[in-house]
Amino acid sequence: MLSIFPQSKALFRGDIDMSADSETDTKAQKGRANHSHIEFAQKDEETGGSLEGAPTDRGESFPDGGFQAWRTALGGFLSFVASIGFLSGGSVFQSYFKTTVLPGSSTSDIAWIGSVQVWGCYFFGIWSGALSDKHGPALPLAVGTFFMVLGNMMSSVSTKFYQFLLSQGFCVALGMGFIFTPALAIQSQWFLKRRGFAVGFVMSGQMAGGIIWPVLANRLLNFEGMSYGWTLRIIGFMQLGIMVAAILLVQRRFPCAMEQRPMPLKQYFTDRSTMLLTFAIFLMNLGIYVPWFYITPYAIQRGASASLGFYDAAILNAGAFFGCYALGMIADSGLGFFNSVIVATFVCAVISFAWIGSHGIPGVVVWAVAYGMISGALQAIFSPCVSMLAPTTDVIGFWNDRSNYRRGRWDRLRTITPDCEILHDPQDPQFHERLSCWTDIDRKTPTASILPRSEHDCLKTVKWALQSSIPLVTTCGDHSTWSTTGVEGIIIDLSGYVDVRVDAERKAATLVGGDLSKQVGMRLAEAGLFTAFGNDNMVGVNPYFLGRGASIISSITGVGSDQIVSARVITAQDGGKLAEVTEKEHSDLLWALQGAWQFFGLVTQLTIRAHRISQLLKQQGLIWTGAFIFLLERATEIAPVMKRLMADSQRATAGLNSIPGHRRAVPFQVLYDLHPLVATGDEAPIQHASDAREALCGKGDLKQFGVVGLHGFDAEGFVRTIDTWKQMVHDCPDAINTGFNVQRDARAVKTPEVELAMSLYDIPYWQNNLIWHTEEWNHRKVEAYNNECISIMRGDDQSHSVDFQNGTRVGPIERRYRGQAHLEKRLD
Fold this sequence. Notes:
Blueprint: E1 10-12, H1 26-29, E2 38-42, H2 67-82, H3 84-88, H4 90-101, H5 107-135, H6 138-155, H7 161-185, H8 195-223, H9 228-249, H10 265-270, H11 272-288, H12 290-301, H13 306-335, H14 337-354, H15 361-389, H16 396-400, H17 407-416, E3 421-423, H18 429-433, E4 448-451, H19 455-467, E5 472-475, E6 490-493, E7 500-503, E8 508-512, H20 517-526, E9 529-530, H21 541-546, H22 554-557, E10 564-571, E11 577-581, H23 587-595, E12 602-609, E13 611-612, E14 622-629, H24 635-646, E15 652-654, E16 657-659, H25 669-672, E17 678-685, E18 702-710, H26 715-731, E19 739-744, E20 765-772, H27 779-794, E21 802-805, H28 813-816, H29 820-827
Parallel strand pairs: 4-6, 5-6
Antiparallel strand pairs: 1-2, 2-19, 3-4, 7-8, 8-12, 9-13, 10-11, 10-12, 14-16, 14-17, 15-16, 18-20, 18-21, 19-20
Helix pairs in contact: 2-7, 2-8, 2-9, 4-5, 4-12, 5-7, 6-7, 6-9, 8-9, 8-13, 8-15, 12-13, 13-14, 13-15, 14-15, 24-26, 26-27
């Protein structure tokens, strides 16, 4: 079905009808229409890549290693050495301020400098987390570096308390805040199974800095006779160099061009569980840093020399250095992050009280090691806990500063719908697997995907969402951009709710929310029936029927929406109501479902008409599938031939399928006479007609699908669209696999018994434009070319055309209803 060319070539696809039963029912043939199919698509000149292509890898699983991951971890480690490590050695400066720089100030006054640093580290981290999510970590890290170095340089020339408070307090705190969150949170984009170790490694940079800076300051101040000012300047220049290296090493895993959604502040501040976790972190941070700032003054008070007092700070940080690794590895090995937090918090509290009994120098040293290990471990383990609760990987920075904890909400849903599968953990591979069918441009990340197993589950889920004021959308089978939502809402994925019930006597089938085209086709064929279907096995039948549903057999059955007999629909009325929709009950809603191209609720069940396979004129519903392949440069020659073929009323053809008429002779002999590069064809039962197309129907990398209904086919206009396409590929080479497809009904499609809002049965031509493999940066440009092609085919008479886009519904509504006059008629 597909050919790969080593040179610049093109595909032309025409449907092949190799033969037909000469003994077919002539009367039934009068119900035939003719669909022909043209498709052009250029192949990559160098690689000869096929149309199917691989979806863009958004990396929704976690590498848990590799060069990029570990370089990011190293960058985070260096960031903590330069910033938070300086904060961890704050007790050195606390002591030096008291004895030398500000001898007239009290210890409590001087403590304000370190306290402001701790406060600013977390307070400014709130904004840096959101900034990192939006623009990547490099920007906040650079901003933080500037203010941290500036603060230390200004502190080196300060002489008064308020100057130290502003420079080394607020300014340095601002810098640390913009470094702390991005450097730590970015690790959770790269690691899952080894997250505890990776975060512990990054946090150990704080302790490494807590060893380096006190020892360096002690050496410069107490042994080299360096002034306080030059000591800070040297430290500032070293911080600058370390941070430049860190910024170059840290890499964001997801592109900054990803869709940015407003942060769900309201959900965060109104969730009780979230507030409890945040309060717990607040209490931990309120007390855990006290020993870090007072260990040096305390050691000196207990008889240690100034030099040994400086080293006590380094000893405490050395203990914390190993604690970060130890608890992280224990959590990874099976204890879990939350259990580790509980154990570490209890042990830390016990050791804190042991400080009271450490009187001599040996006791202070032993206590510093013990407290350093457990408090360092506790600080390191909180971040992965918070990251586990973030609804998406692209808002981890935001969540690391707000500690969103929403599991209680899902527990409530599980209570009322125990059979539902609820995927809300952004670290769960299944959560992201459910989103992989969307393109990299269209993909959004909801707060959860809910997979109901029954109609009861669907009803309870809708009621729960309405009561919780959570937006929801439904999806089934292949996707569309209006069947997804961002972090503010949920997706109800109906793929787990499947059942096909066929009533052969009534020639009807009852389909539920998650049924797919292939499943239904197989069940109907077993009963000797068929119905209107598209060319993709993975299409969800309910959205297919609700969205018009054109197919290769529309001339026999009518469009998909004409098949709808009744439905069961969950609406938002009365907080979630299940309605039985028939011609007698809720008839207005049935009319809307049959033809308004919209969903008016969650459709849990459709009853549709079916037809005898004998109407296809072949035993077992056999039809032919195949393709002609020509060079692109022959489009001018091929288009007029195809136009003549489309006037042949002996067969119905569309896509890659052909339903034969009565003639046994080869119907497309004129195409064979043009000597195609490839001509294939074979018979297949109608329920298997789309099997060969499955590789083409994956939606993970399909960027745009546009259809325009036309009143006539202009061969010259079609060639102009090819020329426009050539210009598009010249400007946007990544869109090289874009293709065009034209289908034709030789007579009007079967007229429905009741005229629906769509009223498309007298539109004889349909042109499909498929835009494949475009990048985000040029998507709009490629889309503009697509619209230009559609405009060429529509011509001047807009009232004889209708548009349908699966990528958007923001276009003029009159184009969907064949002009303003027709729309007004329908609205009346």
